[in-house]
Design a protein that fits this description.
The first copy, chain A, is of the alpha/beta class. Chain A has 14 helices and 17 strands. Helices cover 35% and strands 24% of the residues of chain A. The longest helix of chain A has 20 residues, at 310-329.
């Protein structure tokens, strides 16, 4: 079966030996025979680029380690470079150098791809090398390959997912244990599920990078991170969580990429949403990820699994390494699924959704009618109105009430006009909050 | 983007123009520009092999139709043959001829692949052509490609799924509407979800073919349909459905492929099972399919979507057609992921599971202890014992009772010994029924 074959091994270099990198190194070093059977050629790990040589790394020959990452990727004899250091620089320059020197690249770097997928894909295609990145979105869940290949004969209309485990854990805690955002975040940090600086997760930036990658792949176009509409979960109130529950919904941070109805542009957005418990994404709890795909012919598909963690991410990376190595062995590569349409990202105002709007009013006769009139004057029709009285001591004729209004589907631009008008109305007695609704 | 390019188009022949074939023809004929963008070369549908020329086929030029299928696949200039006629012969001979004449093959034919995947893969590999079959298992759900590529750097330990929509619909009706099997089948037939002769579905043969394909792919070995342990849903009683419900379970027809603990052989089986409502497969209702994959590094993954139907199946077929055509354009093909291990299928007796055993007893003092002793003497320990009295008029000391016993996990061979002994015991007053349990 090729064992003991005289053909030269394929040379792999690894950049980064952190949580994922050390697992990838372990698999390559410990499973040479299995990998050879699957690839048809032996894999040789020729070097591991690290920042610090002094960290003890069990099971890894120190002679493999180098701090000269640029020297490693410019050797000129590499078949595959696996980039697992993350961040934009020096990862970007190293990947470019690897491609220029004829190596195929496997990366899990969502931040890099969200900015540079287009240019890197074109560079790889020109050099005839592969660029694979299954691990960059939703960890071990195979989503890149299905979008790039399985559904390539179909027309995808929407990709929607829970792609950030940290925020999903925090929202779960808020819904299930009735914690405030701050308390849930503190718990997630104590357990190591959230970082000391949680900004990238809780403000939605991490999910937005993944949304950009998914949108580009699904719609054969180029979308960068800064084009993604992005709203985090920090402002969510306990009142909104309770209202969602009353309406049979839970709250999730969703990343959505959607073709507009004329298929001419795309909506790409990350925001918290009230998700009906009837929707399959509502049941995806804890640190799991899930991606929901809607396409013209295949209908609804859903993919669920571990969205992060060393071993799951390493599984996705190794799937790419084996595929790229097989292509290399057969002397074929460079089909990187580059974008061929130019669908611009539409402004969020063109997005259509249902909305949940909540605020306090002074409960005078006629106030509800005046609220409804604000929605009506902008052509937004109401689906559910919740009214609850607050515990304040007030006079009988002027006690404050909390209104929660769910609209029918409408354009976000119209809803913005409603919100502006409500914010200036004299009968509105608090901040006006809005949350998007899915699957209701 | 290559529109108006002078490079020769890729020639495609289609075998079959039924529910799926007509949809595939429609996509190829109606979307030439989109397909050309995705493939990098134009696709030309050169012929459609059918049984009967007289059937009216909207939107298809009659000049494309032929009843000489053998002549069509032996033209010698075909790039891709799409086989959608189903069944073993003549599909088998036609696919072989297509491969011999240098065409890559896309097929949705699970019956053929369950018997001949190994030999056909080897033939394709020898000829340097592709053999793709995403649509053969679970319709539009991308499962073949994830198993063949995404998880190829990992070690899959188990694949378990609901892969037959007809039986899933019938079982749903039995659970939700408390129908008998016969009544639920009649309803499924009336709605067109079950065929007039439902044998292939309700006896599990269709699921067994898919289990053979999944097992071979997941464990890099060859498994044929007749090696799959197969038990259908026809014998399921309303009492078992009610007992499952009491235990927080539903009943599903599961197809399972599992590596034995020493990874030396595989268990491949199709049978109804009580599935805990906590297990993600329990929520997969109606005609949907779902596949659950467990692997060493990636952990648990689940894929859910439409398991059948013309358009969803056509989506999977077209994904393969585009992939195969891309390979063809680049002059590369023939990596068909042939088996390289030789893991035999272990007898069902070596399978380990929890079991639910039910039967009637004459409720004399000491009978429960005697029942328990039968299990204990074979080393099978009990987890739950349900006892319920029947409505018969009986004397006070000898009224019949129904016992339902769920065991802890044990080898099926041991359970078989328990069943044999119970069937001969004088205190057992009815047929002894057994159902396997999952996720409890």
């Amino acid at each position: 079966m090729g064992r003991g074959s005289v053909s030269k091994p394929l040379k792999v270099a690894l950049l980064g030996a952190g949580v994922v990198g050390s697992q990838v190194a372990r698999i390559i070093l410990n499973e040479p025979d299995t990998l050879e059977q699957r690839i048809g050629r032996r894999l040789e790990l020729v070097g591991i680029g690290v920042r610090n040589l002094d960290v003890p790394r069990e099971g890894i020959d120190p002679a493999l380690l180098t701090t000269d990452l640029d020297g490693l990727v410019s050797r000129g004899d590499l078949d595959v470079v696996v980039e697992l250091i993350g961040g934009i620089e020096p990862a970007h320059a190293l990947v470019q150098t690897a491609i220029e020197h004829g190596a195929s690249v496997v990366t899990a770097n969502k931040a890099l791809l969200a900015d540079e997928l287009g240019p890197l894909s074109r560079a790889a295609q020109e050099k005839g090398v592969d660029l694979y990145y299954e691990a960059a979105v939703a960890g071990a869940i195979p989503i890149i390959r299905p979008l790039r290949e399985s559904l390539v004969g179909d027309e995808i209309t929407e990709v929607m997912g829970i792609v950030n485990g940290t925020t999903n854990y925090i929202l779960d805690k808020m819904v299930t244990d009735h914690l405030s955002f701050d308390a849930a975040l503190a718990e997630a940090q104590a357990l190591g599920y959230a970082e000391a600086d949680p900004t990238a997760d809780v403000e939605g930036h991490d999910a937005a990078a993944k949304a950009a990658i998914l949108a580009g792949l699904a719609f054969h176009t180029e979308v960068t991170r800064d084009e993604v509409f992005c709203e985090g979960i920090t402002g969510i109130t306990e009142a909104e969580i309770a209202a969602a529950d009353q309406l049979g919904c839970t709250v999730k941070l969703l990343a959505t990429a959607k073709l507009t109805s004329d298929a001419g542009s795309v909506i790409v957005k990350v925001h918290p949403a009230m998700v009906s418990r009837k929707h399959p994404l509502a049941a995806v709890s804890g640190a799991r990820n899930a991606i929901f795909v809607n396409s013209r012919e295949a209908g609804e598909l859903m993919f669920v699994g571990a969205g992060a963690g060393g071993a799951p991410t390493a599984s996705a990376v190794m799937g790419d390494v084996v595929t790229v190595a097989r292509n290399r062995r057969r002397g074929t590569a460079g089909h990187v699924g580059a974008a061929y349409t130019h669908r611009p990202v539409a402004p969020i105002g063109e997005s259509t959704a249902q909305f949940y709007v909540s605020f306090e009013v002074v409960d005078r006769p006629g106030v509800l009618a005046r609220c409804a009139a604000v929605f009506g004057s902008h052509g937004v029709s109401l689906r559910v109105v919740q009214q609850s009285y607050l515990d304040d001591e007030s006079s009988a004729e002027e006690h404050p009430a909390r209104l929660g209004i769910m609209t029918h589907a409408t354009q976000e631009a119209r809803l913005s006009q409603v919100l502006s008008e409500l914010r200036e109305a004299d009968f509105v007695g608090s901040q006006v909050r809005m949350m998007r609704v899915e699957g209701f």
